[in-house]
Amino acid sequence: MVGPFLSYSYRRERSGQAPQKEYSRGSLAPKARMKYLITVFVSIAAIIAGITSAIAQAHGAFIGNAWLRPPYVYGYAATAILALIGIVTGIKTTRAERKSIADEKHKQIRIRLATLMRQWQEIFTGLKAATDDYRYTELIKNATVWANDAVSLLKEAGHPTDAELLSQVGHVELASDQLARCAHIPEWKRNEVARFLLYYQTLDQIRSNRRF
Description:
The chain is mostly helical. It is built from 6 helices and no strands.
């Protein structure tokens, strides 16, 4: 939890916040077919191995090395090939599924980040125009929620270092040049507006570095 504007308890139920979707695992039909094929390959391999072993045993092929000669060796070779195809197919299916999940997660992160950027603009515009009244207090609360949402999103995206960097914006002392960018803002709210601007700049730099 970050505290950019004094203390305000973190709330997720901010009005207008886009609902968070669980990451889709993509179309299940192709993956289901691939998993079905794996089962088929393994099952056929087991059947062939069983039949070959039964015939070999009936003909006493396991006495000595007769089972290593035709026709038994063909059955075992077919078993090994089918089993290998099943294993390779399983590996490829697993890799494709993981990539699909990662791609979908990245897509959802980008969408939610774009939403946060738009929300920032709305809050920032409101902060600059607000007077010292109830509306300004509500905007400060919204700004705090926005900051926490941004930090949580970075953590969810797998970038805890970036999340910590962004959270520290709420605790650092603002530099003179950062305050100078908001020189036109009334002094009583200049610090809060400048800090919220720094949040945006930091998040935008992270987005650029991570190519969200």
